[in-house]
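Dear V.,

Thank you for sending over the compound details. I've combined the ligand you provided, zinc ion, with the protein sequence from our construct and run the structure prediction for the complex. I'm sharing the raw inputs here so there's no ambiguity about protonation or stereochemistry in the SMILES, which I know was a concern on your side last time.
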Amino acid sequence: MIQTISDIFATVQGWLFETLVQPLVFATGMGEFVEEAFTGTEWVLVGVCELVILFVILRPLESIIPVHAISNPRARWNDFIYTVLQRLGVIPILAFLILDPVLSIAAEALHLEGWGTFNLDQVWPGVTDLALVSFFLYLIVIDLFEYGYHWAQHNVRWMWALHSLHHSQQDMNLWSDDRNHVLDDLVHDIFLGLVALAIGVEPSQYILLVSASRMLQSLQHANVRIHFGRIGEYLLVSPRFHRTHHAIGIGHESRGRNSLGGHNFAVLFPIWDVLFRTAHFAQGFAMTGVRDQLPPPAGRSRDYGQGFWRQQWLGVKRMIESSRKKVR
Ligand SMILES: [Zn+2]
Ligand SMILES: [Zn+2]
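Below is the predicted structure of the protein with zinc ion bound, written out as structure tokens.
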């Protein structure tokens, strides 16, 4: 079954590349990037598959078991635009143009430092021989770095200035995972690319790792009443667990027994929140948003923008302001 799917995928990728992408690359005088364009075709195709699966599975679920009625359809439509830009390659291509030279320099530096062959297999010989084992191992290691990055997004001022755009969605839905500031996406993609390079992930496996993670994150943001039960909630981040992260007063700003601000930073595996004492297994499905969006006296009716360009512009403004004062 998996073999058949991957055969069909390879055939479609080859056809698309030969009939459309390759002629376009040469026609625009970008012949030197033909190899990268082939990989790019794979990313776009994976993105199309993701969009179709999300729409077919999650959209009906949002109608059957919603947490709340969507009050602002325009906000959801706007998140959909983010998802299309992200998964069909506009933002990744932008990131790639910056990422490729950065990664080449990093790869060279690692090689010079004698790190060129460093990977998980060296730490634990033979462990990555089985494709499935190495897939899950890389998924877990990358997820630990993702936890750290997400924690920083909430605790480093300029990063929160950008990440707060993601949290400002009060009608969280299946497309909200991609509602991020473009600068935030770029920094994140470079960070993740460097981590993958440092632990020796093969490019062919990297795309699958990213895709699996993205699908699960779309589920987490969907407007669905889903949790994974007493034990399951500890194993995989559920829509309820992540919704708690988006809740005003709990997820992204509260200070519990630990000294960290906020809860539920884990991207895929809640175990990191348990280990670092930031887990909060709430029973209810919280409403979402950022405190300063609320009207006074609770907040100050802060505007995060409705459309893409306005949201991006306000994000840059918040980032500049954050260098002068605290933005929470
Ligand atoms: Zn967050
Ligand atoms: Zn989120």
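A first observation: The first helix runs from residue 2 to 27.

Warm regards,
I. M.
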